[in-house]
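WARN retry 2 of 3 for item q-0093 after timeout on previous attempt; input resubmitted unchanged.
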Amino acid sequence: MVENKYLLYCHYGISEDDTSSKIIVKAARKSYMDFCRRITFQNRVPMENRDIFEDRVKTLLSDMIPSLLESVRYENQSQELFDGKHNEICEAILDVYDSAGGQTYGIAQRWLNLTLMNLVLIDSIQRINNLPIAKTRKFFHVPVDNYLLEAATTKQNTYRHGLSLKYSPLKHDIGRDYQMDWYRAGAVQPFEKWEYPEYIEFQNAIRDKLREFNYTLNYSDSLDWAFKAFLEVSQARNR
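OK item q-0093 returned
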Protein backbone atom coordinates (compact mmCIF):
# COMPACT_ATOMS: atom_id res chain seq x y z
CA MET A 1 0.00 0.00 0.00
CA VAL A 2 1.26 3.46 -0.83
CA GLU A 3 0.25 4.64 2.65
CA ASN A 4 2.70 2.18 4.20
CA LYS A 5 5.49 3.33 1.89
CA TYR A 6 4.69 6.91 2.85
CA LEU A 7 4.80 6.05 6.56
CA LEU A 8 8.16 4.27 6.32
CA TYR A 9 9.69 7.10 4.32
CA CYS A 10 8.41 9.89 6.56
CA HIS A 11 9.19 8.14 9.84
CA TYR A 12 12.43 6.34 9.00
CA GLY A 13 13.52 7.66 5.60
CA ILE A 14 13.19 4.15 4.19
CA SER A 15 12.67 3.63 0.46
CA GLU A 16 11.36 0.45 -1.14
CA ASP A 17 14.73 -0.42 -2.70
CA ASP A 18 16.83 0.07 0.46
CA THR A 19 19.09 -2.84 1.38
CA SER A 20 18.78 -4.49 4.79
CA SER A 21 22.02 -2.79 5.80
CA LYS A 22 20.62 0.65 4.96
CA ILE A 23 17.40 -0.14 6.80
CA ILE A 24 19.33 -1.08 9.96
CA VAL A 25 21.31 2.16 9.77
CA LYS A 26 18.11 4.18 9.43
CA ALA A 27 16.43 2.28 12.27
CA ALA A 28 19.51 2.90 14.41
CA ARG A 29 19.41 6.60 13.57
CA LYS A 30 15.73 6.83 14.58
CA SER A 31 16.53 4.99 17.81
CA TYR A 32 19.44 7.32 18.57
CA MET A 33 17.20 10.38 18.25
CA ASP A 34 14.96 8.95 20.98
CA PHE A 35 17.62 9.17 23.69
CA CYS A 36 20.62 11.10 22.34
CA ARG A 37 20.22 13.87 24.93
CA ARG A 38 20.99 11.32 27.62
CA ILE A 39 24.46 10.60 26.18
CA THR A 40 27.33 12.32 27.98
CA PHE A 41 30.82 13.01 26.72
CA GLN A 42 32.39 14.47 29.89
CA ASN A 43 33.30 17.56 27.81
CA ARG A 44 35.89 15.49 25.93
CA VAL A 45 34.33 15.67 22.47
CA PRO A 46 33.41 18.89 20.64
CA MET A 47 29.78 19.05 19.56
CA GLU A 48 30.75 19.03 15.87
CA ASN A 49 32.60 15.70 16.30
CA ARG A 50 29.87 13.75 18.07
CA ASP A 51 28.28 12.62 14.81
CA ILE A 52 31.43 10.56 14.20
CA PHE A 53 30.60 8.29 17.14
CA GLU A 54 26.98 7.99 16.06
CA ASP A 55 28.07 6.94 12.56
CA ARG A 56 30.46 4.35 13.98
CA VAL A 57 27.73 2.76 16.08
CA LYS A 58 25.23 2.75 13.20
CA THR A 59 27.81 0.96 11.04
CA LEU A 60 28.55 -1.46 13.87
CA LEU A 61 24.86 -2.29 14.25
CA SER A 62 24.39 -2.81 10.53
CA ASP A 63 27.35 -5.23 10.61
CA MET A 64 26.47 -7.14 13.79
CA ILE A 65 22.67 -7.33 13.94
CA PRO A 66 22.35 -9.75 10.96
CA SER A 67 24.75 -12.18 12.69
CA LEU A 68 22.82 -11.80 15.94
CA LEU A 69 19.58 -12.78 14.21
CA GLU A 70 21.14 -15.61 12.22
CA SER A 71 22.57 -17.12 15.42
CA VAL A 72 19.05 -17.90 16.70
CA ARG A 73 17.22 -18.37 13.42
CA TYR A 74 16.61 -22.09 13.87
CA GLU A 75 14.46 -23.87 16.41
CA ASN A 76 17.27 -25.49 18.43
CA GLN A 77 18.79 -22.13 19.44
CA SER A 78 18.44 -20.70 22.94
CA GLN A 79 17.77 -17.49 24.79
CA GLU A 80 21.19 -17.84 26.43
CA LEU A 81 22.89 -17.81 23.03
CA PHE A 82 21.01 -14.66 22.00
CA ASP A 83 21.77 -12.98 25.33
CA GLY A 84 25.48 -13.68 24.94
CA LYS A 85 25.67 -12.23 21.44
CA HIS A 86 23.44 -9.31 22.46
CA ASN A 87 25.93 -8.54 25.23
CA GLU A 88 28.82 -8.68 22.74
CA ILE A 89 27.14 -5.98 20.65
CA CYS A 90 26.50 -3.79 23.68
CA GLU A 91 30.16 -4.14 24.70
CA ALA A 92 31.22 -3.25 21.15
CA ILE A 93 29.13 -0.07 21.37
CA LEU A 94 30.88 0.80 24.62
CA ASP A 95 34.25 0.23 22.95
CA VAL A 96 33.38 2.85 20.32
CA TYR A 97 33.07 5.45 23.07
CA ASP A 98 36.23 4.54 25.00
CA SER A 99 38.19 7.43 23.51
CA ALA A 100 35.36 9.84 24.40
CA GLY A 101 35.38 9.10 28.12
CA GLY A 102 33.15 6.05 27.87
CA GLN A 103 29.41 5.42 28.04
CA THR A 104 27.24 3.14 30.18
CA TYR A 105 25.62 -0.19 29.49
CA GLY A 106 22.25 1.54 29.80
CA ILE A 107 23.00 3.65 26.74
CA ALA A 108 24.25 0.66 24.75
CA GLN A 109 21.24 -1.54 25.54
CA ARG A 110 18.86 1.27 24.73
CA TRP A 111 20.40 1.81 21.31
CA LEU A 112 20.48 -1.87 20.38
CA ASN A 113 17.06 -2.74 21.80
CA LEU A 114 15.29 0.25 20.25
CA THR A 115 16.89 -0.54 16.90
CA LEU A 116 15.62 -4.12 17.10
CA MET A 117 12.16 -2.87 18.10
CA ASN A 118 12.13 -0.46 15.16
CA LEU A 119 13.14 -3.29 12.84
CA VAL A 120 10.14 -5.26 14.08
CA LEU A 121 7.86 -2.35 13.20
CA ILE A 122 9.46 -1.88 9.79
CA ASP A 123 9.34 -5.60 8.99
CA SER A 124 5.64 -5.73 9.86
CA ILE A 125 4.99 -3.21 7.06
CA GLN A 126 7.69 -4.07 4.54
CA ARG A 127 9.51 -7.39 4.76
CA ILE A 128 13.24 -6.83 5.26
CA ASN A 129 15.14 -9.21 3.00
CA ASN A 130 17.79 -11.40 4.64
CA LEU A 131 16.74 -10.52 8.21
CA PRO A 132 14.70 -13.23 10.02
CA ILE A 133 12.90 -10.74 12.26
CA ALA A 134 9.66 -12.69 12.69
CA LYS A 135 11.48 -15.92 13.55
CA THR A 136 13.81 -14.40 16.11
CA ARG A 137 11.88 -11.60 17.86
CA LYS A 138 10.85 -14.03 20.61
CA PHE A 139 14.42 -13.67 21.92
CA PHE A 140 14.51 -9.84 21.81
CA HIS A 141 14.97 -7.81 24.98
CA VAL A 142 12.72 -5.11 26.39
CA PRO A 143 14.23 -1.63 25.95
CA VAL A 144 14.64 -0.13 29.43
CA ASP A 145 12.86 3.21 29.86
CA ASN A 146 10.74 4.86 32.53
CA TYR A 147 7.40 3.86 31.00
CA LEU A 148 8.23 0.15 30.86
CA LEU A 149 9.97 0.26 34.21
CA GLU A 150 6.83 1.76 35.76
CA ALA A 151 4.61 -0.85 34.12
CA ALA A 152 6.83 -3.73 35.19
CA THR A 153 7.77 -2.74 38.73
CA THR A 154 5.01 -0.65 40.35
CA LYS A 155 3.85 -2.34 43.56
CA GLN A 156 0.18 -1.37 43.57
CA ASN A 157 -0.24 -1.67 39.86
CA THR A 158 -3.39 -0.27 38.29
CA TYR A 159 -2.21 -1.04 34.77
CA ARG A 160 -3.77 -3.91 32.87
CA HIS A 161 -0.30 -4.81 31.60
CA GLY A 162 1.44 -4.21 34.92
CA LEU A 163 3.69 -7.01 36.19
CA SER A 164 4.15 -5.98 39.86
CA LEU A 165 7.80 -7.02 39.95
CA LYS A 166 10.13 -5.79 42.69
CA TYR A 167 12.91 -5.24 40.16
CA SER A 168 13.65 -1.53 39.90
CA PRO A 169 17.26 -0.77 40.84
CA LEU A 170 17.33 2.12 43.30
CA LYS A 171 19.72 5.00 42.68
CA HIS A 172 23.33 4.08 43.38
CA ASP A 173 26.82 5.03 42.30
CA ILE A 174 27.98 3.33 39.12
CA GLY A 175 30.13 0.33 39.95
CA ARG A 176 28.60 -0.15 43.41
CA ASP A 177 26.18 -2.80 44.65
CA TYR A 178 22.55 -2.15 43.82
CA GLN A 179 19.21 -2.96 45.44
CA MET A 180 16.09 -3.97 43.55
CA ASP A 181 12.85 -2.44 44.84
CA TRP A 182 9.44 -1.19 43.70
CA TYR A 183 9.20 1.61 41.18
CA ARG A 184 9.07 5.09 42.71
CA ALA A 185 9.49 8.15 40.52
CA GLY A 186 12.77 9.86 41.34
CA ALA A 187 14.10 6.95 43.39
CA VAL A 188 15.07 4.50 40.65
CA GLN A 189 18.34 4.43 38.73
CA PRO A 190 17.96 6.28 35.39
CA PHE A 191 18.36 3.84 32.50
CA GLU A 192 21.46 5.60 31.19
CA LYS A 193 23.27 4.67 34.42
CA TRP A 194 22.33 0.98 34.39
CA GLU A 195 25.09 -1.61 34.23
CA TYR A 196 24.90 -5.18 33.00
CA PRO A 197 24.01 -6.99 36.29
CA GLU A 198 20.83 -5.01 37.01
CA TYR A 199 19.97 -4.96 33.32
CA ILE A 200 20.02 -8.73 32.79
CA GLU A 201 18.32 -9.35 36.15
CA PHE A 202 15.48 -7.08 35.03
CA GLN A 203 15.20 -8.85 31.66
CA ASN A 204 15.10 -12.29 33.28
CA ALA A 205 12.45 -11.18 35.78
CA ILE A 206 10.20 -9.95 32.97
CA ARG A 207 10.60 -13.19 31.01
CA ASP A 208 9.79 -15.31 34.05
CA LYS A 209 6.70 -13.25 34.85
CA LEU A 210 5.44 -13.26 31.28
CA ARG A 211 5.68 -17.04 31.18
CA GLU A 212 3.25 -17.07 34.12
CA PHE A 213 0.95 -14.49 32.53
CA ASN A 214 0.92 -16.13 29.12
CA TYR A 215 -1.93 -18.38 30.18
CA THR A 216 -4.25 -15.45 30.87
CA LEU A 217 -3.03 -12.46 28.82
CA ASN A 218 -1.46 -14.40 25.96
CA TYR A 219 1.63 -12.31 25.24
CA SER A 220 3.43 -13.72 22.25
CA ASP A 221 6.84 -12.54 23.52
CA SER A 222 8.52 -9.85 25.61
CA LEU A 223 8.18 -7.24 22.86
CA ASP A 224 4.46 -7.90 22.60
CA TRP A 225 4.18 -7.00 26.27
CA ALA A 226 6.49 -3.99 25.80
CA PHE A 227 4.39 -2.49 23.00
CA LYS A 228 1.16 -2.89 24.99
CA ALA A 229 2.62 -1.68 28.29
CA PHE A 230 4.32 1.34 26.72
CA LEU A 231 1.09 2.46 25.07
CA GLU A 232 -0.91 2.02 28.25
CA VAL A 233 1.49 3.93 30.53
CA SER A 234 2.32 6.72 28.07
CA GLN A 235 -1.35 7.31 27.27
CA ALA A 236 -2.22 7.34 30.99
CA ARG A 237 0.48 9.94 31.65
CA ASN A 238 -0.74 12.13 28.81
CA ARG A 239 -4.37 12.23 29.83
